Amino acid sequence: ANLKLLAGAYTSDQAFGNAERALLRIVDIREKAKGPDDLDLAGDCVALASFYIDRKRLAVAEPNLRRAVAIIEKRQGSQDPALVPVLDMLADIFAAQKAYPNAEPPLRQILSIEETIYGPSHPNVATYLDKLGRLFYMEHHYADAEPLYRRSLAVWEAALGQDNIELEIGRAHV
After folding, report:
1. Interior CA angle at 9 toward 7 and 11, to 5°?
2. DSSP code, position 6
3. By C-alpha distance, which of 17, 70, 25, 18 is closest to 44?
C-alpha cells in the first residue's frame, strides 16, 4: 500500500518518472511474491496502464492491459465481468490510435459479457453497441454501423422512452 500511495503522491506532484518507477516496482514485487497469474497483479498492470494512458503513452499501456486481460481470463474465464473495464480501456487505446479493427475484438467480447450478465436489452449492452457502431462508422463501414445503432436505439428507447432528449445526445465516445 505504501508504494501505491507514494506513486500517487509522485503523480500528484508531477514527478512522473518517480511515479512510473514506483508502479513498475509494485508490479515486479507482486509478480515475485504471488506469481505471474495473480489477480492482484492484473490490477497492478491496469494501474500502470492507466498511468501510461494519462501520459499519452498508449503503446506502453497496451501490453500492460493485454497482460491483465490474459491473467483475468486464465483465472476467471473469458466471460468474467472484471474484464469489461480492462477490455474497454484496450479498445479505447486502439480507437485513439485509429487502429479500429484492433478495437473490434475487445468490444465484441464486452458485448458478449454484458449480454450474458444483463440480457440483450440492457443499457450497458446499448452503450457497447454504440461504441462498436462508432468504430465501423469511423472506418466508413456504414452498413456495419447501422444495425448496431438501430439495435442500440431500440434498447435506449425501451429504457428511456421514445421522446427522451438523451436519445438525441448519444452515449458512445470512442
Report:
1. 70
2. H
3. 25
Residues 6+ apart with CB under 8 A from 74: 37
Q: Kindly tell me the burial class for residue 167, based on how many C-beta atoms sit within 10 Å of its own C-beta (0-12, 13-18, 19 or more).
A: middle
Tens-of-pLDDT digits for all 174 residues of the chain?
A: 588 888 888 888 888 898 999 999 999 999 999 999 999 999 999 999 999 999 999 999 999 999 999 999 999 999 999 999 999 999 999 999 999 999 999 999 999 999 999 999 999 999 999 999 999 999 999 999 999 999 999 999 888 877 766 666 555 433
pTM of the model: 0.88
Element (H, E) at 38: none
Tell me the three cell numbers of residue 65: 492491459
All three cell numbers of 173, joined, read: 465516445
Q: Any idea how long the chain is?
A: 174
Cα dist. 60→36, 90, 135 in Å? 19, 12, 22
Instruction: Give the integer Cα–Cα distance in Å for 159 and 86.
Output: 26
Neighbour tally for 54: CB within 10 Å: 12
The three grid cell numbers given for residue 136, joined into one nine-digit string: 465501423
Closest CA to 92 of 118, 48, 56, 121: 56
